[in-house]
Amino acid sequence: MTRERLYLFDTTLRDGAQTAGIDFSVEEKIVIAELLDRLGVDYVEGGYPGANPTDTAFFEAKRTKAATFTAFGMTKRAGRSAANDPGLQMVLGSAAEAVCLVAKSWDYHVRVALGCTNEENLESIRGSVEAVTASGREAMIDCEHFFDGYKANPAYALACAKTAYEAGARWVVLCDTNGGTLPSEVMEIVGAVTAHVPGVHLGIHAHDDTGHAVANSLAAVAAGVRQIQGTLNGIGERCGNANLITLVPTLMLKSPYREQFELGVSAEALADITSISRAFDEIINRSPDRHAPYVGENAFATKAGIHASAILKEPETYEHVPPETVGNRRRVLVSDQAGKSNLIGELARLGIAVDKADPRLDALLADVKEREAQGYAYEAADASFELLARRRLGEVRRYFDVLSFRVMVERRFNAIGELVTVSEAVVKIDIDGETHMSVGEGNGPVNALDTALRKDLGRYQSVVDEMELTDFKVRILNGGTDAVTRVLIESYNKRTHKRWFTIGVSGNIVDASFQALIDSHTYTLLKAGL
């Protein structure tokens, strides 16, 4: 059976750039374009040349190797020719190989936003597509608000799509711009459109305002479209766009899509998709969604003891696809619900070889359950769990012993009359029988403790200097000012670029923080092979 070709159009660098808190530089756009080439998408929409200095500079040269380098723009203004429209000419003067123009397809927007007649809007669509094709580029039209427009005036929405197609547009993209359309509506409306524009020339652009962007994209494919627009990790305006990181594995691994369609993404690239997703989060300085489908850290995590026992025997019992096909891995979590099967599986993942009959496993399992009863959560703190396990198995030396610590927080006016808060910490430790005492200041008690602890670690100093704290989370476990506090610290090694989490629990937030801090320093030394 010959499979049909589905085309992936990535708009991370254009529509995704409208995400609150995200602002790409030219250099970041270049790196992200390389990631998209690595994944194997067909089109990379890089932005709007002429709209801002960043996008203009980005389009001074072709930025993709394999994907079609695509510029975004608007159809010409009503009442003027394409040659006399500065915005359109700026797009046509760029290094783009294809041009995707947004066009109004809802008569309400034509009247309110454009202030022209419906016929003038159709002429703008026609003239703009003809100008793009005359320049030797592939032309696409994003029919903005198509689904809302179709529901309000089906004849006019269809007229916009037909005009674009008949003028020579390679792709006519149906946009759910407000993100409020549901899968059953998408299926029905796309089916109606295919009677006028062939599905091999139709695309879908879905927003996630009801949480259905991926489902709407799949519904559109089932109804006939053959291009899907989306973004890496689903970023985008408001609630985001269709998530290509979810769509690609679904299309390649799930029936009936895998039997019916083929993508430009190879099996090798699919096995790299978890890495690509997390690399993108690093570039935009966001923590990865640990529960993201396919690529999340917990996407193949099992906690319940019965499930864990089964999954270690036959993974298919609780996994819908093998995690390695998407570059992820199986995780059997260690928690108070765990049995020995969980424990053995987690130890194996961490590279700790131990016989299942080893009596120390029972003691370790008891340790874990007792600590989690106190408030520890090792499923969120792999590094602290690894230290606990290796200590119970006698595989971690005592690099240093903390003899005491003291923290002082002072709120006062400085020399120029500003109210400031200053933290000072004193830490006394023992290294190889020698006492070291250090003082550190910081913008908070944890920062001050970290500064003091790492100030003089003797022969371990150069190794600890590679580590820095990147995140600090506090959770109150049982309410009230005397509550038990759980602290989770994320750390990062500047040399190896590895990240890890450590945990501390105490009725005193500073003590809980210091526990997690000590674990992080110790884990750094352990991983350095000392």
TrEMBL record:
<dbReference type="GO" id="GO:0009097">
    <property type="term" value="P:isoleucine biosynthetic process"/>
</dbReference>
<comment type="similarity">
    <text>Belongs to the alpha-IPM synthase/homocitrate synthase family.</text>
</comment>
<dbReference type="GO" id="GO:0009098">
    <property type="term" value="P:L-leucine biosynthetic process"/>
</dbReference>
<keyword id="KW-0808">Transferase</keyword>
<dbReference type="InterPro" id="IPR002034">
    <property type="entry name" value="AIPM/Hcit_synth_CS"/>
</dbReference>
<feature type="domain" description="Pyruvate carboxyltransferase">
    <location>
        <begin position="6"/>
        <end position="271"/>
    </location>
</feature>
<dbReference type="GO" id="GO:0043714">
    <property type="term" value="F:(R)-citramalate synthase activity"/>
</dbReference>
<comment type="pathway">
    <text>Amino-acid biosynthesis; L-isoleucine biosynthesis; 2-oxobutanoate from pyruvate: step 1/3.</text>
</comment>
<keyword id="KW-0028">Amino-acid biosynthesis</keyword>
<dbReference type="Pfam" id="PF00682">
    <property type="entry name" value="HMGL-like"/>
</dbReference>
<dbReference type="Pfam" id="PF08502">
    <property type="entry name" value="LeuA_dimer"/>
</dbReference>
<dbReference type="InterPro" id="IPR013785">
    <property type="entry name" value="Aldolase_TIM"/>
</dbReference>
<dbReference type="Pfam" id="PF22617">
    <property type="entry name" value="HCS_D2"/>
</dbReference>
<dbReference type="InterPro" id="IPR036230">
    <property type="entry name" value="LeuA_allosteric_dom_sf"/>
</dbReference>
<dbReference type="InterPro" id="IPR054691">
    <property type="entry name" value="LeuA/HCS_post-cat"/>
</dbReference>
<dbReference type="GO" id="GO:0003852">
    <property type="term" value="F:2-isopropylmalate synthase activity"/>
</dbReference>
<keyword id="KW-0100">Branched-chain amino acid biosynthesis</keyword>
<keyword id="KW-0412">Isoleucine biosynthesis</keyword>
<dbReference type="InterPro" id="IPR013709">
    <property type="entry name" value="2-isopropylmalate_synth_dimer"/>
</dbReference>
<protein>
    <recommendedName>
        <fullName>Citramalate synthase</fullName>
        <ecNumber>2.3.3.21</ecNumber>
    </recommendedName>
</protein>
<dbReference type="InterPro" id="IPR005675">
    <property type="entry name" value="Citramal_synthase"/>
</dbReference>
<dbReference type="InterPro" id="IPR000891">
    <property type="entry name" value="PYR_CT"/>
</dbReference>
